[in-house]
């Protein structure tokens, strides 16, 4: 997206001052862990780290994005009509370096998401802890709006999963860790700065990242608009 066409979108968050909401449930822990076991068995041979559009590939992920408590919160945040714009399943295998740099989910070179009409969710499929690579966020960082960013160096190797990287020297001491049990989820303003570290444990860490949008949320300069996966409403 050209620099001139980019909008900063500074201002309040539909998720309040902190710009995030944690402690939601997308499933029971035992069912989430069962899904994790399936994913580990399927992806262990290739040690796949990123699966794009997981909601189109796995029935459990298609159900996860419409789990009632999560979807209710999403609708309370961005309105009744909701579609999935994108999902990534992220698997962090033991012994591999896979840290995700500071970034904002709602901006990349192709598009920007209007933060009043879009929200990001992160669903823990395994437990996510400070030692296996849970999210770290900077509460309130959405208020500065979209920041400048660089292209991610390793995008090609990671299947172009993340288009942006550490846009500024975010002070780690302002960061808050967001550990979640399997089956729990959090919602984030699409401008909220977040990152995660590599997994230093012997187990696999799996999370599902979801971007939800309401009609009109996507500002794009690309002819290849993302395909939407409507969940509720009829304005699509
Ligand atoms: O799963 C992770 O460790 C990071 C996910 C994330 O930040 C993202 O996909 O936007």
Descriptive account of the structure:
The chain has helices at 29-43, 54-57, 59-64, 68-78; strands spanning 20-25, 50-52, 82-92, 100-103, 111-113, 118-124, 135-137, 150-151, 164-165, 176-178, 184-189, 194-196, 205-213, 218-220, 229-232. It is α+β, with helices and mostly antiparallel strands. It has a single domain (20-221), classed as q2cbj1_9rhob like domain (Jelly Rolls, Sandwich). The strands form four sheets. Strands 1, 2, 3, 6, 11, 13 and 15 form a seven-stranded antiparallel beta sheet that branches. Strands 4-12-7-10 form a four-stranded antiparallel beta sheet, with no helix packed on it. The longest helix has 15 residues, at 29-43. It is globular and about 45 Å long. The two termini are 23 Å apart. The structure holds 2-oxoglutaric acid. 2-oxoglutaric acid binds next to strand 3, strand 12 and strand 13.
Structure characteristics:
236 residues; alpha+beta; Jelly Rolls; seven-stranded antiparallel β-sheet; four-stranded antiparallel β-sheet; 4 helices; globular; binds 2-oxoglutaric acid
| Alpha-carbon distance between the two ends | 23 Å
* CATH top level label: Mainly Beta
Structural class assignment: alpha+beta
**Main pleated sheet:** 7 strands, antiparallel
- Average pLDDT rating: 89
- Rounded to an integer in angstroms, the radius of gyration calculated over CA atoms is 16 Å
* CATH fold description: Jelly Rolls
> How many DSSP H or I helices?
4
- Judging by the overall fold, what is the CATH architecture? Sandwich
Count of folded domains = 1
The molecules bound to the chains, other than polymers, are: 2-oxoglutaric acid
Number of strands: 15
Q: What is the CATH homology-level superfamily? A: q2cbj1_9rhob like domain
Q: Judging from the principal axes of the Cα atoms, what is the shape?
A: globular
Secondary-structure element order, as H and E? EHEHHHEEEEEEEEEEEEE
Helix coverage percent of residues?
A: 10-25%
Which regions contain 5 or more consecutive residues with pLDDT less than 50? 155-164
Share of residues in strands: 25-35%
């Amino acid at each position: 997206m050209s620099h001139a066409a980019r909008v900063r979108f500074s201002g309040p968050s539909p998720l309040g001052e902190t710009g995030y909401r944690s402690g939601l449930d997308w499933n029971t822990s035992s069912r989430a862990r069962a899904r994790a076991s399936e994913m580990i068995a399927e992806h262990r041979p290739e040690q796949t780290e990123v699966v794009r559009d997981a909601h189109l590939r796995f029935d459990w992920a298609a159900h996860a994005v419409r789990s009632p408590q999560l979807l209710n919160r999403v609708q309370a945040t961005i309105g009744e009509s909701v579609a999935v714009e994108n999902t990534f399943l992220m698997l962090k295998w033991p012994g591999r370096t896979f840290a995700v740099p500071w970034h904002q989910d709602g901006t990349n070179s192709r598009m920007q998401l209007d933060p009043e009409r879009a929200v990001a969710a992160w669903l823990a499929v395994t437990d996510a802890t400070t030692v296996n690579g849970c999210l770290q966020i900077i509460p309130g960082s959405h208020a500065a709006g979209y920041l400048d960013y660089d292209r991610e160096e390793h995008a090609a190797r990671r299947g172009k999963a993340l288009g942006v990287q550490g846009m500024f020297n975010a002070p780690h001491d302002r960061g808050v860790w967001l550990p979640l049990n399997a089956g729990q989820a959090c919602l984030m303003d699409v401008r909220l700065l977040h990152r995660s570290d590599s997994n230093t444990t012997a187990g696999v860490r799996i999370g599902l990242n979801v971007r939800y949008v309401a009609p009109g949320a996507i500002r794009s300069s690309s002819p290849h608009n993302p395909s939407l996966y409507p969940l509720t409403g009829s304005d699509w």
